């Protein structure tokens, strides 16, 4: 097996577990906080939101630092740092006794996270150019599948082994990822610390395609904003369209929630090959239009299976978005600066995740579900028109 292919598969495994480790906490937080003695509904909501949101915010702000370090020291060492740090954080969560301790560890988890950004940079620099789209598509599917399936897997582990044990299991998996990276990933990139810019302004001066990269960063933000504006309200939406007192609502919501991730995993390899064949710009525009068309009808479903089918079909389109964005960055930025470029792009992505999760719920509360689905679909469509008119091939 070629070294670049082995690296991609190992990073796939690590990216999935990293995203899983960050997202599996969501369905467990209320139960875990209750075990700590937090029983009032408003306090549970407050601590849950703080514990979830702090990680995404910290990742957004520290990503540029890790990106500069990747360009100066190499990319493999950052994968080792992230996998080991995530493992320790999950182990520590097993032993927390207060909400303050949980938030503190989630804060630290944000500081040491960044596995996906580092793995994208490593895979992009190690993979032959004619295979970059495919490799990054596989990687993106792992990251998003981990984010989507994390709550489902976290709930299963907690119900089977207990909440605290579930974090220990995830920590063991992350430890396995650390060992695989340490022994099997070989990096050919040779850092040149003297040529690495020390500030964003210095970085701008060395990027010949700065305008196009700004458009990509804005598109990444729109992608993340649109994704997270819908995901947190799926369960609430199902509760509204289904008959009162429907049994197993949480299980049905989890299945609908996971349908998007399964679709992306199924289509990622195929989409990556098309990115390599016809270029990331065309796939990006097509995926944006398709996703918009699949999102709007979700406002009018009347059954859970209708929503599940549409979410699955939406996932087929989403499979082309993040890989095409990352492939465009890879082919339009110097290799020795790709760590910083990808890290700044990740900053916009995580800001989009945070603002989408908060803004989507506020928008839905003000204007309703129909307006939220229409607004999200139109946002994807606007992004497609913008990319078509402003982004060069």
Automatic annotation (TrEMBL):
Single annotated GO MF: transmembrane transporter activity
Principal subcellular localization: membrane
Residues spanning the membrane: 44-66, 78-98, 104-124, 136-159, 165-185, 213-237, 249-271, 283-301, 307-329, 350-365, 371-389
PROSITE patterns noted in UniProt: MFS
Keyword list, A-Z: Cell membrane, Membrane, Transmembrane, Transmembrane helix, Transport
Protein name listed in UniProt: Metal-tetracycline/H(+) antiporter
Top-level taxonomy: Bacteria, Bacillati, Bacillota, Negativicutes, Veillonellales
GO CC terms, sorted: plasma membrane
Domain Major facilitator superfamily (MFS) profile, residue spans: 7-393
Membrane topology: Multi-pass membrane protein
Database matches in Pfam families: MFS_1, Sugar_tr
Organism superkingdom: Bacteria
Location of the protein in the cell: Cell membrane
